[in-house]
Design brief:
This protein is of the alpha/beta class. The protein contains 9 helices and 9 strands. 41% of the residues lie in helices and 18% in strands. The strands form 2 sheets. It has a 5-stranded parallel sheet with strand order 2-3-1-4-5, with helices on both faces. Strands 7-8-6-9 form a 4-stranded parallel sheet, with helices on one face.
């Protein structure tokens, strides 16, 4: 029996993860009181009608019951039941945006300040995070990318260790992404914005890509960027880093940065790295 405990920060994607786990054959139970874990594991192991893959969601919604989790996990091991922990997290900025979009109240935000609830939850979950077998940072993940990562770990037998690389294009006029680990400026390249036939398109379109990459400086920049990132990746992994956010910016975040982000992402994927691509500001400016 594979027994998975799904936990993490409120708003980080636990509910979506459980749906995807169900899709790949897990029997899932949401918001199980920690004191019932051992009993539930015993019932599952003795019942022939229950799937061999079990997932339970346990988080701070349990209130005071959540404080019993550590002792319950010790009882699990003493009873001979192995377990794995999937921990989901995201940046403060992302969690705040998600809460404001959903208009939900954070479980620990008694005074209504979402950020205070998030910080209190981080402190409360720190010990559990340190025990986690898998840590997924969903800051820059779309729903489909989260599904793919769940499948990567629990179907394909992949590892969440190593590095999840987020390649992010953006426009400097809208600000540098706060969660960036590395920031690159490609405003030195000729701007398709000033080419009337290309202005309304983006770096996702062939004409813009061809224009941006026809310049020798663009080709040399990409080669040096890939070489540097490939050099750094094993060093980041050695230091225990699980996510790397590479931000590539141009003026508006629509042409040059998108082209470069796509090319870097594809090159890293071809080199067998796990990569998520996001174009933060591609729709900020529309042209008729």
């Amino acid at each position: 029996m594979r027994f998975l405990i799904v936990t993490g920060l409120s708003g980080a994607g636990k509910s979506q993860s459980v749906k995807y786990l169900e899709d790949i054959g897990f029997f899932c139970v949401d918001n199980l009181p920690p004191a019932l874990i051992v009993k539930f594991a015993e019932m599952c192991s003795q019942s022939k009608g229950v799937n061999e893959n079990i997932a339970v969601v346990i988080d701070i919604r349990g209130g005071k019951f959540f404080d019993q989790l550590q002792s319950s996990l010790e009882e699990m091991l003493q009873a001979g039941y192995d377990y794995e922990i999937l921990f989901l997290e995201a940046s403060d900025e992302t969690l705040i945006k998600r809460y404001k979009t959903s208009r939900r109240k954070h479980p620990l935000a008694a005074d209504g300040r979402i950020i205070r609830g998030i910080k209190a939850e981080r402190r409360k979950l720190q010990a559990l995070k340190e025990k986690a077998d898998y840590i997924l940072d969903t800051t820059n993940m779309s729903a489909s990318e989260l599904r793919e990562e769940i499948s990567h770990i629990f179907v394909k037998g992949g590892k969440s260790e190593g590095l999840m690389i987020n390649v992010l294009s953006f426009g400097f006029k809208y600000g540098i992404p706060l969660d960036s680990d590395m920031v690159f400026d490609v405003r030195f390249l000729p701007n398709p914005y000033y080419i009337e036939t290309l202005k309304k398109y983006s770096g996702n379109d062939e004409g813009v890509r061809e224009y941006v990459m026809k310049w020798p400086a663009a080709l040399e920049f990409m080669k040096k960027l890939v070489d540097m990132v490939e050099f750094l990746i094993p060093h980041f992994i050695k230091e225990g880093k699980t996510q790397l956010v590479i931000a590539i910016g141009c003026t508006g975040g629509r042409h040059r940065s998108v082209t470069m982000a796509n090319l870097l992402s594809q090159t890293l994927k071809n080199n067998n790295h796990r990569v998520i691509t996001e174009h933060r500001d591609i729709e900020e400016e529309t042209y008729r």
